[in-house]
Amino acid sequence: MKKEELIEKFNEREFIIKYTNFYGLKYFLNNCIISKDYDFNNLDTNTIILSNKGQELFDKLKKGKYASTNENLLKLAVFLEFDRSELLIDINNSDYKSFVKSVSNEIINRNLLFPWIYGRTLYDKYYEEFEEQSRFLENEETLRLLKDTPQGVFQMGNQIIGPLGILHTENKRILPPTRVVQLWHCSDPSCFALHTVKLYSARTLISELLFEISELTRGEEISEWYDFYRELCDSENSFYDDFKLNDIPLTLVNSFGENELRLLLQEIIDTKEGARTIIPKGKRFQGASEKIISSLSKAECFQTILLFDSCDLLVATEKLIIERKIFIPTTEVRVSKIRKTGGFFNIIHECNRLGFRAISSDTHLSFIHLRNLILKLYSENGLKQQLEWNLRFYEAASLKEKVEDYINSEEPRKILKEVVLNGPYQVGKTFEFLPGYFQMPNTLEEEEKMIDKILWKLGFNINIYPQILPVFEKRLSKFKKIIEENNKYTEADKEKIRSAAVNLFVSLEEILKHTLSFSTWLLLSDHFKVTRFKYNYTEATSFMTEKLNGYDLNEDTKLLFDSGGKNTLFPLVEGFRALFGICDAYLDDTTKYEREKAEMPRFFGKTNLVDFPLMHSALVIDIKRSCYQNIREIGLSIPSEFGKNKVLEIRNSLEHDRDDFPLKSNLIKACECLSKSINRLYESGLYPNVYLFSSLNKDKYNRVIKTFEDYNGKEIVISELINYKGYPIPSSDSPIVIVPEITFPDTKEPLRIKYEENSEYLFYWRNYPRKKQKLIKKDTLEIEE
User: Fold this and answer.
1) Is residue 34 within 8 Å of residue 111, measured between CB atoms?
2) Per-residue pLDDT for 324 more than 80?
3) What is the DSSP string of 460-476?
4) Which of 214, 487, 515, 672 has its CA 20 to 30 A from that of 327?
């Protein structure tokens, strides 16, 4: 029978509940991992009643070479086959509760194993404990890999398996178990593919019996039972869903840390009505929510979270992000490193401080979403007439076409202000259209943030930038305005100047910390083998401290840096002398830093289409010498200009209530020095200024021009060639630092670095991917995945 015929024939509610339950169990058991000495008698098959068709198969097995085989084992084999043209199980008369209890106990006791495929637990263990990298693991190796790792968590319909056994929920999903796991990256530094490994269960008598059943039923036409099951358990038709809410839990478990998942579960328990009746029973789930979450592992927490509706999980997570209980930095966009695309539109989920959104990995849905939102907001007759009036000057045959012309001719932000901010009804309807946590705005600033959030959820990129430079500029402007107000300063004036100076010099120190850390890290690091051109301020500061600490400025002065980054203005300014002194020494002895042959990418020397510029373990040696001279002059101008304009002396005199208060002319010169010096660091790229993707143009010759924009609206246009494919250029959708003053020989492409900010997400995925020095292939067997 076809799926439609099955739906028509089997439509009784009681049958559907039992069928989906049994089918889910069958699916779990067929995809679990067991050892060779597993005792199948632990599964209570006495409660399973075979159908007439199932009994026929059972009798054939019993009459053949398996006549002496334990009948419970034969029945289990028929159950695992479950269906052919007809069901092999008498669904209505079998005792689900007894059978599921025995299966649940086996999962809790880890006799039935499932791999914890989320995050990097198995990935790290495979890297650290397995010398060979393969496409499959035999059962003994599989059990070794899974030992002391969390029990896997999966969901089929309303059944959720995991370390807590089998839990049941009203919220149906299909997150099926798998034995194909993404486990390793190969040793090639230029390859970023995540390779899969198939895990094998033990070959047992059950395996033989299943093969025998397939032989006995060879040639039989199979009914569409799996499609029938999916239809019953996937009522939202998620294959064509352009948001795929039920995949949100996968983004949560792969992109949010253990502490963050605990906070989410606590929020759900404390705020969702009836949550206490949904979570498992037992002592561990009684008492204060804080006590409950503290006792749960990440796997147990995730299994419990799956009991709740995906939309509720999304809303609660976004609420925690807005309240800064879950911290997402300005530029961070969380996406599952273990990518899962799904459905007709290949949907993936992203999350930043504005919340979650679903985007297609192969097409842009943002304008379609915007069109559908407008038509939804104005679907009622009176509002539809209003929309037709507003779009009366667009020449089109239908309202839908007019909306299409409208969204293609106006800025999305302007459109939202016109159609959403038209009244509270439209705002409320927008909140219903887009899943997430929204609040009615009470101020103009809140209104702008709401528009940002709506745009983000529709699929438009919203550029959010770090505020270090803008804050400095604002404080410098305020300081200049105060010192220019009067020619002679009263005590009250001096107090205002001192007060403004405190904030100004805090910002100055912050900019110099970032600049010196970034510049040192940039010029002296091995970016091909070690950093992969990913900049993190904390790591760069540690690197800078290690490289510059103890540098002899002269016979009497050594530079001292704090490893925690708490450095005063003097070492931050004079650190540029140390940096370029060390760089000069590197350039005087380049052979010391030549890259070993084993570290070269595989394509090196095999093609003239792709260049490899990173021939040394320090970037300063590989960039154009003219570029180096330019940035050297800019860097050394900091201590030179600061000394000439007495910036440090003025800072010291303003910090204390001293008699030698600076003259107005000296204060103005210091401000001009700061403005000019910081601007040169900004323009050159020595300060790690963040750029975000703005636009892309492609002509008929396939020449691609990408434009990137910073917080100030400054644009940098880049024409990419493939000749530097071996240099891991960050993708356009990443926040990047562009260094206009640095290029490699024989190209005008400026250097780009991926910019990362500290978070639980970043710490968890640090040092990923991990690559072994040498790839060892132990097999050539092709595995069907």
Assistant:
1) yes
2) yes
3) --------HHHHHHHHH
4) 515
